[in-house]
Amino acid sequence: MEPSWLETRWARPIYLAFVFCLALVLLQAIKLYLRRQRLLQDLCCYPAPPTHWLYGHQKFLQEDEMEKLEELVEKYPCAFPRWVGPFQAFLYIYDPDYAKTLLSRTDSKSQFPNQFLSPCTGKGLLNLDGPKWFQHRHLLTPGFHLNILKPYTEVMVQSVNTMLDKWEKMLITQHTNVEAFEHINLMTLDILLKCAFSQKTNCQINSTNDPYVKAVLELNKIIFYRMNSFLEHHDIIFNFSPEGHHFQELHQVLHHYTEKIVQDRKKSLQDDRTQNTQKRTYQDFLDIVLSVQAENADSFSDNDIWSEVNTFILAGHGTTAGGISWLLYCLALNPEHQQRCREEIRGILRDGSSITWNHLGEMSYTTMCIKEALRLSPPIPSISRELNKPLTFPDGRSLPAGMNVVLSIWGLHHNPAIWENPKVFDPLRFSPENSDQRHPYAFLPFSAGPRDCIGQQFAMIQVKVAMALILLHFEVTPDPNRPPILSSQSVLKSKNGIHLCLKKIP
Ligand code: HEM
């Protein structure tokens, strides 16, 4: 019988293609095997919890991650390797000396989770590296000077009062239940929009009215969804998914909105200069970024402005909202500390009708409670770096360049080697006499070193203003039916929100 045309004509190319693909697969398998061997060798001096050959520690840490982390911190001093599948591992660290060694350097940010943030914010301070980060940090630091921040206090008071008016309207009798994070998140976004662009969006009353506010809130949700969905970590899969499409649309909204605000402001500054007028009472972040651009036109493009302004909004509102919400929850669980803060605030502000910058410095007990809440529930539970060069820790153990290191701020703040009874809310840990002897890298809610949080003063002012006004008007207790369920993403959240009962203080 004669061979078919397929056998004669196509047999050889098909055979060659098959061999080629097989060789590729084999090569990839060898590469992955060598990568695993390399990681095993590099991490051999760090004892690890038992690992599954395929899932690594993912399944083990999937449920109750924070509680399990606490167990591991106690069992493995200083550090442990965490395997994410068979070919990827991070070294988790939670010891102050280890933290100091890492944070004194300027290694690059790890790809995860910045790769999901970058398409949304562009390349701003949070995810820039190398000389460009250094240049931006240097140019933008004066924008966070106390003299610039002081006038923002009034803006913050207005936004907190808007939230409190909303809460008062929700009161059915003297009590009401609220999911605090949602309200506080809108309030911090309102503050940032006023301080960043002088935009009064009324977003606390009608969050769906403003396309930009809607886009920011939804983009945040999509970024969190993507972080938790392993398949959608891949750009191609994500871009073709419904969430990916929606992300593109929202990104366009964000881009056009900021673009228009920047162009309008440039024009109005030009008009002010020609007519010699100045309409606003304070310098907002956009003024500062534009003045940086005016003096450094070659090194600060319009795209840089766009990225920095969006970074400021996205890095600033969810973190601060988390800080305020968890603090309220801690005070709800600890009524004696709540009452002590209220008495202190009453003593300083009386009825709270006027609250100024100078008052904030007097709130010493409230500040200790804020710090203790930031210790127990750090809004950013971990940060990560990819080592640019080899690193040696003070105990002599080292890591090669290229290794990913995660500083678990949660682990550090719950480390029983540093904090006695770490789960107990005890603000007196932060009294001057109790803080004196503590390692400077034991408490790092805002990180430390050259890449610490540029917005930390700004955040602390907001937390203090919000706390003072909330505690003067409301007593907070936890909702016994809906305790928070911790969820570790790039920001510490509760899967079911943070539910509180509010009681109006007559
Ligand atoms: C309670 C509130 C906040 C907390 C707990 C917090 C925490 C942090 C932490 C831990 C980092 C280090 C991130 C890393 O190394 O990967 C950081 C960086 C940063 N934060 Fe905050 N932050 C807060 C509020 C804010 C606010 C209000 C702003 C802006 C107005 C802001 C802007 C930034 C920026 C731009 C960076 C990057 C700095 C750099 O790398 O040079 N943060 N923040």
From TrEMBL:
> Which segments cross the bilayer?
14-34
Keyword match Heme: yes
Its annotated compartments are: Endoplasmic reticulum membrane; Membrane
Q: One Pfam family name from the record?
A: p450
Q: Has keyword rRNA-binding? A: no
Residues engaged in binding heme: C453
How does this chain sit within the bilayer? Single-pass membrane protein
GO CC entries: endoplasmic reticulum membrane
Q: Which family does it belong to?
A: Belongs to the cytochrome P450 family.
This protein's name: Cytochrome P450 4X1-like
Gene assigned in the entry: LOC102825562
